[in-house]
């Protein structure tokens, strides 16, 4: 007889998305998000105090919706998984305190989840049969790295960015091009109207192992745009966006495929906000198809911040018996580690 799969509620509030989701084992039952991104866009970025207040307004409602859409009650839950870091301190505390109250009231385990581990765990919900080892491309607003997952809980960092994260580069280029926050989707939309015709710096193509560097590319584009504006030259913002997008993302695809070959694995997964980019999804899919690699790509909605991925990592910790005390605190910054 198989054991009943645990029913886990995930809660996420590290930045500007208040999210709650319910999973039964690796089956996703609901996935709710209330975002304050539009409010933050007025200020050109996330204002921490506004984010905390928005989470406080939304956390109860988003959780109620997640339970309702999953067709379960809080009494049926086996555990609550919640992001404890990294992120904005005040924002994290809202979700964490709410989850603590729920775990205490229901007398069920609380599982503090590292947000980045959540991004890595999103792929498990996409394909129930996914098992390590595999190579993962992680690309978010704070991290860009290629990892080798030896097991569900242990990974090796094969390489990472030496300066900006890929998402951060998108956000900075968006600002230079006068596009609103959050930059990534706006740069992608503008890039669709342009051509990759502007020669860009070579990044760390063919060198630097599995490391990346975005500062040279960023500086090059800032200079290109400013020089054109100062000289009154006509330039195409769409071509800049498109050329940047190709340069910033092609290198990720290339190095991920190389890493899979070197590690001798035929499976690649991906996670983080930048993986929602359509051009990256197409080129990575195409490269994996060509190389005979199985690609497990989370749905776009589960690449950017969401609670389903937190519940998914919660399931891994639940099975490992790693529970958190009710005294667990929020941690604004957590270095990427393999353990
Ligand atoms: O994973 P995420 O939602 O939050 C972090 O944990 O950082 O990633 C956010 C980052 C932002 O920098 C955003 O501009 C970028 O992901 N992003 C994108 C796209 N959607 C979000 N970058 C490129 N193309 C997109 N479609
Ligand atoms: Zn994230």
Please state the CA-atom Rg, rounded to the nearest Å: 20 Å
- How many helices in DSSP terms? 10
Strand order of the largest sheet: 3-2-1-4-5
| Small ligands present | 5'-O-[(R)-(carboxyoxy)(hydroxy)phosphoryl]adenosine, zinc ion
What is the number of beta strands?
Answer: 10
The CATH class of the largest domain is identified as Alpha Beta
Estimated helix fraction: 40-55%
Order of helices and strands: EEEHHEHEHEEEHHHHEHEH
Shape: globular
The name of the CATH superfamily of the largest domain reads: ATPase, nucleotide binding domain
Strand content: 15-25%
Helix/strand-derived category reads: alpha/beta
Give the tally of structural domains: 2
* Parts with pLDDT < 50 across at least 5 consecutive residues: none
Major sheet summary line? 5 strands, mixed
Kindly report the average pLDDT value. Answer: 96
Per the CATH scheme, the topology name of the largest domain is Nucleotidyltransferase, domain 5
CATH arch. level architecture of the largest domain: 2-Layer Sandwich
- Give the end-to-end Cα distance, rounded to a whole number of Å: 33 Å
